[in-house]
Amino acid sequence: MAGEPSAATMAPRLGEYPKLLSIRAPVKLGHRKSRIGLPLFREARYLCPMAEIIPVNYRDDILPRYRDTPVGLLLEYHNLGRAIGSASAPQLLIGMCMDSRKALRIPNDFAFVLRTAGANMRDNEFRISYAIAVGGVRSIVLIAHTDCGMAQLEPRREQFIDGMVKNAGWDRDRAARHFADSAPKFGIRDEVGFVLGEADRLRNIYPKIFVAPLLYRVEDDLLYQLEAS
């Protein structure tokens, strides 16, 4: 109907079915401290070839499509120091990397959390489907992070082989074959480009589920919004 928002511009409100993601909003410039006292980094738009990376230092920084949704709540809990209460049921599924430097500030029972190397959700579709069908979640957040090891696989080939020999008891040929077979599947070219593409892939699989890609900067332990270029 004319004048009504389209599916591409609506975000899921709590308790509603989600719509597809649309991307728009400028980054703000400047350098100040957040409400929880962490230093903020707002480099000149902090651009990468595939996206604009948008900080969340205040609630007004949250993109309109995320406000008053589980995605917006995640940003408020983690970045803005929103009081941790209790959740009656999971609000969303979070897919993120297994990297030990990442820890989210969220209430218990707020989200299902699925951690894999590089936040790569391939071969995890049944787990995602279970969270949707049985857990009842309507939103997915995919969180890439800076300095991801899966974006630096090839330079670590010898380290990987040596580690499997020393720590796992494998012979070098078996370790080398394992790397050769697995690296093309699990390696990523760059963190931001990968999470944008993975979000698109999941939207195609689950057309009624709202999927939001975010970036976790290990340099400041904050979440950033992504705008595709």
Quick take:
Helix content is 27%, strand content 17%.
Textual characterization of the structure:
The protein is an alpha/beta fold and 229 residues long. 27% of the residues lie in helices and 17% in strands. It has 2 domains: 1-148 and 191-229, Beta-carbonic Anhydrase, Chain A (3-Layer(aba) Sandwich); 150-187, no CATH class. The chain has a 7-stranded mixed sheet, sandwiched between helices. The chain starts with 46 loop residues before the first strand and ends with a strand. The model is unreliable at 1-45 (pLDDT under 50).
Q: How many H/I helical runs?
A: 5
Please give the alpha-carbon distance between the first and last residues. 29 Å
Mean pLDDT: 82
Strand percent estimate: 15-25%
Question: How would you sum up the major sheet?
Answer: 7 strands, mixed
Number of structurally distinct domains: 2
Categorize the overall geometry: globular
CATH architecture level-2 label of the largest domain: 3-Layer(aba) Sandwich
> Oligomeric status of the shown chains?
single chain
CATH topology of the largest domain: Beta-carbonic Anhydrase, Chain A
How large is the radius of gyration?
19 Å
